[in-house]
Amino acid sequence: MSSRRASSQFPPPAATNASSAGVPGAELRRYGWTATDETRFAPRRAAGLIPARILRRDRDRCDLVTERGMSNARIGLTRASDAHLTPCTGDWAALSTAADPTIVELLTRHSALVRSSASGRSEGQVLAANIDIVLVVATLSTEPDLGRVERLLTLAWESGARPLIVLTKADLLVDGSHAATVAVALDAVTAAAPGVDILTVSAFDGTGLAALRDELAAGAVADPTGSGPTPGEAVLGGRSAVLVGPSGVGKSTLVNALLGEEKLAVGRVRPQDGKGRHTTVRRELVPLPSGGILIDTPGLRGIGVWDVDSGLDATFAEITELAADCRYGDCEHRTEPGCAVLAAIEDGTLPERRLASYRRLLRENAWLQSRRDARLAAELLRPWKKIELEQRRLYADRARRERR
Ligand SMILES: Nc1nc2c(ncn2[C@@H]2O[C@H](COP(=O)(O)OP(=O)(O)OP(=O)(O)O)[C@@H](O)[C@H]2O)c(=O)[nH]1
Ligand SMILES: [Zn+2]
């Protein structure tokens, strides 16, 4: 994964206020922890573990937040080799509170944004876990890359979270020279995203920011203590949202606009690692003063789809729907008679570009799946290869003995 953007783009977290810590996990509610989560966690708490949300993943350690404040912990999972089970930003974990805190368990994820790994290996790579919304960010300032929007939507649908398209730089609408382009861009994106809500925003003039804040704050509750660790941070919980989109569309500017004043209230944090080390906790996940939790992962360029069968169905919903009316169940919508998809292209209701884009992503998905299947097959064969080898050795030994 490219790290074109420092993962510490969010301001260092302010020192945690322990005053609301009367209730177990209360401080974590800012990060989305709920009473239900706490109930489920009870047996672990009884075993001396505490809940934590992962803010950032390093090779074998994580920056995280617990009810006691920011911390840094070792990854002590037994199945750490499984890409889907290694901690990532957004994960909830059970943490041992030993001298060197250790993540001993990942709590079940309700969603995960997964891409094919940058190295092109046959595994998926989890970019963010436990998200409610994927903000697919594109800009109105240039002709939209619809293929990219569809790719990101496919990943978003597949994650189990709800996609929301955010079109940035809406202030360009008022500029006469841009207005026409923007209107066309908006129509094109709408056609490429059936069933997906689209918000146009501008970090410059504030357009749409209130609507976006409301989306993220849904379900948030007022801080019972009346004040958060930083002034104005009086809302707890809300939706967890991850931002995806190419470089230059205005993600950082948008994040800063959403963070508002909070970015000024910064300070170094001393993780409670028992050794009193002073390190700055870096984070890719931050609670918003207005409610909701924002995740911004570095480097989402060249993002590849990964195991996205249902994501494709959702992204290209109108094609899936048409395909149900094709004469043949296995219709590939190429030359088959009675093909409802081709008929829709013929009568102009389905743009050819949509079908081409759908095919491209289908092919990519099938290719990755076949590579994964090949890897699985190789893994299944491995024990047999070992037995075969041992048998050969045995026979050779016996033959040698008999020759003597
Ligand atoms: N007109 C206008 N320009 C904007 C707006 N938001 C951002 N920009 C400009 O767009 C450019 C890119 O913004 P960034 O926030 O750095 O974009 P990004 O998506 O974070 O880019 P990376 O950090 O490379 O991923 C900058 O020159 C911003 O000033 C906006 O609302 N309106
Ligand atoms: Zn067909």
Low-confidence stretches: 1-8, 15-21, 228-233, 262-279
Report the radius of gyration as a whole number of Å: 25 Å
The count of helical stretches stands at 9
Kindly estimate the percentage of residues that lie in beta strands according to DSSP: 15-25%
What small molecules accompany the polymer chains? guanosine-5'-triphosphate, zinc ion
**SSE string, helices as H and strands as E:** HEEEEEEEEHEHEHEEEHEEHHHH
Family: Belongs to the TRAFAC class YlqF/YawG GTPase family. RsgA subfamily.
Binding site for Zn(2+): 326, 331, 333, 339
Domain EngC GTPase: 129-301
Domain CP-type G: 121-303
Would you kindly provide a brief summary of this structure?
Residues 129-301 form the EngC GTPase domain. This protein is 33% helix and 19% strand. It is of the alpha/beta class and 404 residues long.
